[in-house]
Amino acid sequence: xxxxxxxxxxxxxxxxxxxxxxxxxxxxxxxxxxxxxxxxxxxxxxxxxxxxxxxxxxxxxxxxxxxxxxxxxxxxxxxxxxxxxxxxxxxxxxxxxxxxxxxxxxxxxxxxxxxxxxxxxxxxxxxxxxxxxxxxxxxxxxxxxxxxxxxxxxxxxxxxxxxxxxxxxxxxxxxxxxxxxxxxxxxxxxxxxxxxxxxxxxxxxxxxxxxxxxxxxxxxxxxxxxxxxxxxxxxxxxxxxxxxxxxxxxxxxx
Length: 254
Description:
By secondary structure, this protein is α/β, with parallel strands linked by helices. The protein has 2 domains: 3-51, no CATH class; 93-252, Vaccinia Virus protein VP39 (Rossmann fold, 3-Layer(aba) Sandwich). It is 30% helix and 29% strand. It has helices spanning 3-11, 34-41, 100-115, 130-138, 150-162, 192-197, 199-203, 222-230, and strands at residues 16-20, 23-27, 67-69, 72-76, 86-88, 120-124, 142-147, 169-173, 183-189, 206-218, 234-242, 245-252. The strands form 3 sheets. Strands 8-7-6-9-10-12-11 form a 7-stranded mixed β-sheet, sandwiched between helices. A 3-stranded mixed β-sheet has the order 3-4-5. It has a two-stranded antiparallel ribbon with strand order 1-2. The longest helix is centred in the middle third of the chain and has 16 residues, at 100-115.
């Protein structure tokens, strides 16, 4: 087995493929039968098992892997890495960096850091904590991460600890109404419907001339999300897209 088998599996619609000295492993759609896979790789025997998604059901891959987004390298917690890499444990909380919405947020965060570095940020729907932790590694002094999922907060806390950032990251369970005060930068990488629903509460967390980065938005509903925040006094300053997803960057008009 080798490159030819790899190519044939990709043609069948493989979601992820890994070739090693022990053989080849692939994540296949449910519509592909074991007989089709066996024929594609010309194997006499294959083994099949159910796969579980990572990133809370949104990202499918065989195992964690190192990725780079801009200047940031994200690595599995047990992997060898250069100093400055962000280590993440293999957990179910959303935010491995592999999903386009996370990548869009990280790219927007790097743009903000280059133009107007904030002294603090609020990460709404923190998941694995990847956005807040990346911001801390980029030089933001302190961050608050909030999430309605207690298990996500546990994973975020562990990720903060293994990166030596636990003293600079505060975690709290709940949505934007569960905290008080304002932040110069607010990040929210969640689904479009919750973004629209919690727009008033989220906008109240944005400080004077502060910035708000929203992601998790399918391109088909970009205008719906944009209008919800425009009506509340947020001015859109940038939009980026990747693989059918949109990230919006707003600035407060007050």
